[in-house]
Write a structure and sequence with these properties.
The protein has helices spanning about 15-20, 55, 60, 65-70, 80-85, 125-130, 135-140, 225-235, 235-255, 265-275, 285-290, and strands spanning about 1-10, 30-40, 45, 75, 95-100, 120, 150-155, 160, 165, 180, 190-195, 200-205, 260. It has about 290 residues and is α/β, with parallel strands linked by helices.
Length: about 290
């Protein structure tokens, strides 16, 4: 397998470094970190989709005005997964699977750009999305982003373990190197996505944490803006904090075995792109061969 780290969304909330920890101006720079995985026999796999084509072209018909304003979303077609798949030399039809960390508006917006793909998500996340009643719930879940998806595959947590975490293995139609790791708290059905490569494990933690200094070092830290956003979006504080603690411990105790990253930290995205060249499994894929010619 070969793994590409994509940025499928740009959000620039007012607050600068109070959100992202590095911006010098008034606004911050947050990303939507997605993965495109080339597999041996299962086509292309997307992990999350960021914002989709319809979100970019008609945002107010698709997204909540509250989150458009709060996150200061930049609607540019070049950020869509569809455009980036094409730029890498693939046809959209080659994306056969999409694995979601959760169904928030900034993670599931591109689902309908890949109508032939099977969409994998925890059952509890879809249940939460369909029954959301609170202000945040009604605005975070946007049914128009996924109401035309016809090929869903739902999962229940448990049944196996991965570094002490519950794990869903044997995702239908996917290689055994890709796992769902339930990480409830941000949403009821939130999950990380673990990927085994020949150099170790990658864990896309989604929104289980938001800032790079929440993991990987003894002294944990989060910016005020992102700490506020996490509290505003949480559905279960005790579960969210417990899972963050477990991820922090994982990042310290298994630093040489697991590389963690979240969805919205721009510096983590750059680190994964620059410091971790495309991760390959032992077998080279035909698609990867085509790209290298």
């Amino acid at each position: 397998m070969r793994v590409h780290h994509l940025n499928c969304g740009c959000m620039c909330p007012v607050g600068g470094a109070l959100f992202d920890g590095f911006s010098k101006g008034l606004t911050a720079s947050l990303v939507c970190h997605c993965l495109l995985i080339e597999t041996d026999h299962h086509g292309l796999v997307l992990v999350d989709t960021g914002f989709g084509t319809c979100d970019v072209t008609t945002p107010r018909k698709r997204l909540s005005p509250f989150f458009i304003l709060f996150n200061n979303i930049r609607f540019e077609r070049r950020y869509t997964a569809l455009e980036q798949v094409r730029q890498l030399g693939f046809a959209p039809e080659e994306v056969r699977h999409i694995v979601l960390t959760h169904l928030d508006f900034d993670h599931a917006g591109g689902l309908e750009d890949f109508p032939q793909a099977k969409v994998h998500v925890l059952q509890r996340e879809m249940d939460a999305a369909r029954t959301a009643r609170s202000f945040i719930g009604r605005n975070r879940y946007r049914e128009k982003q996924w109401d035309e998806v016809r090929d869903w595959q739902f999962y229940q947590p448990g049944g196996d373990t991965w570094f002490g975490f519950q794990a869903v293995r044997e995702l239908v139609g996917l290689p055994p190197e890709i796992l769902l790791i339930p990480l409830t708290g941000h949403t009821h059905g939130h999950a990380g996505v673990a990927l085994q490569t020949e150099t170790g494990w990658l864990l896309h933690a989604g929104d289980a944490y938001f800032y790079r200094e929440e993991v990987g070092q003894v002294d944990r830290h989060c910016t005020p803006g992102l700490a506020f956003y996490q509290r505003m979006m949480e559905v279960d504080r005790s579960a969210r904090l417990a899972n963050q603690h477990r991820l922090w411990m994982l990042s310290l105790e298994h630093k040489g075995e697991v590389s963690l990253f979240c969805s919205h930290d721009a510096q983590e995205l750059e680190r994964m792109r620059a410091g971790n060249p495309p991760a390959r499994a032992a077998a080279t894929t035909a698609a990867a061969d085509r790209m290298s010619q």
